[in-house]
Design goal:
17% of the residues lie in helices and 44% in strands. With 746 residues, it is α+β, with helices and mostly antiparallel strands. Strand 5 (77-82) and strand 6 form a beta hairpin.
Length: 746
């Protein structure tokens, strides 16, 4: 007995009933489209989908009717998606019958029912009867719904008669296939494909087709000794799909614990694989030593071999997007695994590094004596829209603010507008030009005049969450996901491109003639001006903070299961000067102060500030002096810690508090801009922007700026800010008052 059953629970929902009875026709139409329930195919009273085939009924019934019609017209395969594609009812034509399978694609993927044979004309009639019954049920709740276009469309589809056409010739039957890859002292992956009916060859593409890939077989994972880790019967495509996802997790775990499930034969049976401390166990069994990256490589090699065998036996499967996605994912992760297994690759030759001098902070006092009061005057205020990530730039006497609605340039001293342009999502400053990205287009403008130097399409892959930053040699680098492209700021030409396998985000750091690309995957590449990798290193874990320059080295912070690791790497060779373990999770980039390295972080729920010696050995660690998250800035002989509300504390070289200033009760805007030390003063930005005496912490002034998200201060204390709403404000020094002590006075 064959029946297509539609759930009726939706009819008891008061909100649905009320919407169906609404006077407005559009409300009724929306209600019909929103009805969600089970669409079950029952064979001899058993739901082959076990109640998993649930979704919007109008969409599901129409898809089922269309799938049956396509099979009747002679197509080999058709499918009906449920749960936004997480479950599929897959139909395969064989003579006058349809083989029905129900596949769940969530982890672990499994086939709930495989090739349940039903008579195709009876399935068509059962689907039409279910569609008519659904329409009658809707009309019984709301008679006016009979006129809705959705129900009329469904009734027309249900009224079509089914006449069977001869299906296209089936593919050539194939015997089972087996491919094993084995390396000495490494795990191995093998598989079998049982496709005696030639199912793989029945699909002609293009697009995505699951039905033709549901061939039975076996996938086996073995230790280097030859003993089985796993040997699973089922659908090799689905098994490899889940194993590749597990391999991706192993590639990014950096030796941490990873556990995953793979479906065993049956509706609920699973195998739980645990990888921890260089060993593998299955279902809680005895752990066996096994390199996690070697295991991942075996899985990925097996997946690539599987794709190659399928395409060799059924060339049209090369157009199957599902198989192509599996192959592309396996290749990308395999490149990441191979790099990780290869480890560090220092430069063979030490290159001469001409490093630009670090930006100098004006240290000479604003005035002799004790500064009492500093006053400012606002000189500019304009809107540019939501600010770009690096939305405020200075180049000589010009300051440029970049937002989503406009780009505005001002004279830094007078606030006079110089030029304006269309807004942009990203911007970077290089060689006297502002390079911007907007709607997939890159352009460069002269900073001095705003004249357009060039415009071009952004490189492929610049979607998602791209970033734009300056690079050596008058270039900018555009990063998106695992790829980074260098572009000449003078001509707009692409000079090089590089991939960091497995990365979702890259953080570039220009250092001499090199660009240091630190990936969130933990891999670090140094790229020379020609685009070649000068050296490579693998961090102890995912990147925890952007890389920072420290003289002729760079500081790199990586997360680990117990906290983090801070590495100092020589820029010219990639050799580690030191690597220090941190027993806390970093909350920002490290910085140099008074011959030491300072870094803030968290231990549990407590915020801490720590200092390390130049060789990486620990100096001290103290609780946050503000009692909250802190941003750090160097002071003469010490360190300044600032909280989001503007509370500050100055610490000496030994971590002792020199002075503190509380701002309890003040609102704390999003983010926490680091304080700016300049000319014996501190510019402290929170809800207000205060000016403090660096030696005592006493307030000496307030700038006419509110809650900045970007801040720039020059040696003349000309200050420019951009807030989170896109308001750009400029202020200049108006005057100051200081007290001169007489010689010999107390």
């Amino acid at each position: 007995m064959l029946r297509v059953r539609i759930g009726k629970g939706w009819a008891s929902d008061p909100a649905i009933r009320e919407a169906l009875r609404a006077e407005q026709g559009e409300s009724r139409r929306a209600a019909v489209r929103s009805i969600v329930d089970v669409l079950a195919v029952e064979v001899d009273g058993v739901d082959i989908g076990s109640g998993r085939t649930e979704g919007p009924l109008l969409e599901g019934v129409l898809a089922l009717l269309g799938a049956v019609d396509r099979l009747a017209a002679g197509e080999r395969h058709a499918s009906v998606p449920f749960e936004d594609g997480a479950v599929e009812l897959v139909l395969h034509r064989r003579g006058g019958s349809a083989l029905a399978s129900v596949v769940t694609l969530g982890r672990p993927a499994r086939v709930l029912a495989h090739d349940v044979e039903v008579d195709l004309p009876r399935l068509a009639e059962a689907a039409r009867a279910a569609a008519r019954s659904f329409c009658e049920r809707v009309v019984s709740v709301a008679p006016a719904a009979i006129g809705s276009p959705e129900l009329r469309m469904l009734l027309r589809a249900a009224s079509r008669r089914t006449s069977l056409a001869e299906p296209a010739l089936a593919g050539i039957p194939t015997t089972r296939s087996r491919r094993t890859r084995r390396r000495p002292r490494d795990p191995a992956c093998s598989f079998e494909i049982h496709d005696e009916a030639g199912r793989l060859s029945t699909w002609k593409g293009p697009g995505a087709d699951l039905a033709s890939l549901l061939v039975r077989g076996r996938v086996s994972l073995r230790y280097a000794s030859g003993d089985d880790i796993l040997s699973l019967e089922g659908t090799p495509f689905l098994i490899f799909r889940d194993l590749c996802a597990a391999a991706e997790r192993l590639a990014g775990a950096h030796g941490g614990a990873v556990s995953f499930e793979i479906a065993r034969p049956g509706r609920l049976a699973t195998a739980t694989v645990s990888v921890e401390r260089g060993s593998v166990s299955v279902d809680g069994g005895r752990p066996v030593p096994c390199d996690p990256l070697a295991l991942a490589q075996a899985i990925l090699d097996g997946a690539n071999d599987f794709s190659a065998v399928v395409k060799a036996r059924a060339p049209t499967q090369g157009k199957n997007a599902l198989l192509s996605d599996l192959e592309a994912s396996a290749r990308a992760t395999l490149a990441q695994v191979r790099e990780a297994r290869a480890g560090d690759r220092p430069a063979l030759v030490r290159r001469r590094m001409r490093l630009a001098p670090s930006p100098r902070v004006a240290v000479h006092p604003l005035a002799p004596g004790r500064l009492r009061k500093v006053s400012f005057r606002r000189i500019a205020s304009s809107e540019v829209g939501a600010p770009a990530p690096e939305g405020l730039f200075r180049d000589g006497s010009v300051v440029v603010a970049c937002g989503g609605e406009a780009i505005l340039a001002f004279d830094t001293a007078s606030g006079t507008p110089l030029w304006s342009g269309s807004g942009a999502a990203l911007a970077a400053l290089a060689d006297g030009a502002l390079v911007t990205l907007r709607d997939g287009r890159l352009s460069a403008r002269e900073i001095a005049t705003g004249a357009v130097r060039w415009e071009r399409a952004a490189p492929d892959g610049a979607g998602g969450r791209p970033s734009l930053s300056s690079a050596p040699g008058g270039r900018v680098v555009l990063a998106s996901g695992s790829s980074m492209t260098a572009i000449d700021s003078r001509s707009g030409a692409t000079t090089w491109a590089i991939e960091s396998p497995g990365a979702l985000r890259l953080s570039p750091l220009p250092l001499g003639s090199l660009v240091i690309l630190a990936a969130d995957s933990g891999m670090v590449h140094a790229v020379d001006p020609s685009g070649r990798v000068a050296w490579r290193m693998r961090g102890a874990g995912p990147l925890a903070a952007p890389p920072v320059r420290d003289g002729r080295t760079c500081l790199l912070c990586f997360r680990t299961p117990t906290g983090a690791t801070l590495a100092s790497v020589e820029a010219s060779t990639g050799i580690r000067a030191f690597e220090a373990s941190l027993e806390f999770v970093p909350a920002g980039a490290p910085l140099r102060f008074a011959g030491r390295i300072g870094i803030a972080g968290r231990v549990g729920g407590e915020v801490v500030v720590a200092a390390l010696e130049e060789d990486g050995s620990p100096a001290w660690i103290e609780p946050s002096p503000t009692g909250s998250a802190v941003a750090l800035a160097p002071l003469a002989g010490g360190l300044l810690a600032k909280g989001p509300d503007g509370s500050c504390a100055a610490l000496d070289r030994l971590g002792r508090t020199v002075w503190s200033r509380s701002c309890d009760g003040r609102p704390a805007p999003p983010g926490n801009l680091a304080p700016v030390p300049i000319r014996g003063l501190l510019v402290v930005a929170a809800e207000e922007v205060d000016l403090l005496d660096a030696a005592s912490g006493e307030p000496v002034g307030r700038l006419p700026i509110h809650a900045p998200a970007r801040l720039s201060v020059d040696g003349d204390l000309a200050t420019w800010a951009l807030d989170a709403e896109g308001l750009v404000t400029g202020a200049r020094l108006l005057g100051h008052l200081s007290v001169l002590d007489r010689p010999g006075s107390d």
